[in-house]
Amino acid sequence: MNTVPAGYGWNWVLSGFALFRKSPAMWAFLSLSYIMLMQLLGMIPVFGWFAATVLIPPFSASFMIASRELDQGRKLRVDLLFAGFRSNLPALLRQGGIYLASGLAILGLSALVDGSLLLQLMVIGTKPPPEAFEEGRLAAAALLAAALYLPVLAAFWFAPALSTWRQLPAMQALFYSFFAALRNWRAFLAYGLALMMLSLVCSFVLFVLALLVRGLLGNGSQNAFVLVMLPVMLTYVPTLFASFYASYRDVFPEPGPEAAAPGAADAP
User: Fold this and answer.
1) Domain-located, residue 2
2) Does the chain have fewer CB atoms within 10 Å around its N or its C terminus?
3) What's the rounded Cα separation, in Å, for the pair 244 and 19?
4) Domain tally for the chain?
5) pLDDT digit string (tens) for 142-164?
6) For the whole model, what pTM was predicted?
7) Residue 260: per-residue pLDDT
8) Does 1 fall in a domain?
């Protein structure tokens, strides 16, 4: 387990984009397929949200494996979307169960602030009444949930990869992931700032393109805006997924001479 300088956080985003550029079409296909699968599961009341949450670690492992394939000079394949289901799946599903329990506990605590409005929104899809926004109860509950989620995020950040590649049991992987993230908080702070900057850039690009589309198509611009948003989203999401791998590669380098050198994916 390495403790890396703060500058590595920015480098993880650059590495993620470099990996995306190696196979943009296949990255877009894999990311869109994952999003659609999650959306389909989410259409099933209650159970769909539970199932989608439990399956997050196996799919996270899949995108880690896909990123390493590219990083080591191999090609992306369609079957890599489910690669995480073929390596230490019991540990990954246990992580998913713990992730679900953690999410429910956080939403349960947020219910003390907003009377379970956020919980109902996330699990059942019930829209909060307008007064919940006006009174600020929903915003307060969301802020509390976000603060409580940070240590959970740290515990799960590296855990799928640790269970997949190092065959660690679920709890041990979560333990190592949490303390690895804690030791590298400076890099993660820089990483968060880099993602905020990337989000702002993507939002600006969307805004400019939306203005151009509106000017060209007038009243018919609504459907065209979706077409404009899609390529931006399918650049941002794969870059984000690949940046997860870049962080793992630097904090948990593979032993032996065959390990990928830190920053190898940064080259354009």
Assistant:
1) no
2) C
3) 11
4) 1
5) 899 999 999 999 999 999 999 99
6) 0.84
7) 40
8) no
CB atoms within 10 A of CB 93: 16
Domain span at residue 176 reads 7-266
Instruction: Assess if residue 161 is contained within a domain.
Output: yes
Taking Cα atoms as reference points, which of 47, 54, 50 lies closest to residue 95?
A: 54
pLDDT-derived band of residue 44, with 50, 70 and 90 as boundaries? confident
201 pLDDT higher than 50: yes
The answer to whether residue 50 is domain-embedded is: yes
CA dist 82 and 70 (Å) reads: 16
Is the pLDDT assigned to residue 94 strictly greater than 80? Answer: yes
Residue with tokens 């989608």, as numbered in its chain: 52
- DSSP code for 259: S
Mark residue 46 as left, alpha or beta (left: phi above 0; alpha: psi -120 to 50; beta: remaining).
left
Answer whether 63's CB lies under 8 Å from 82's CB: no
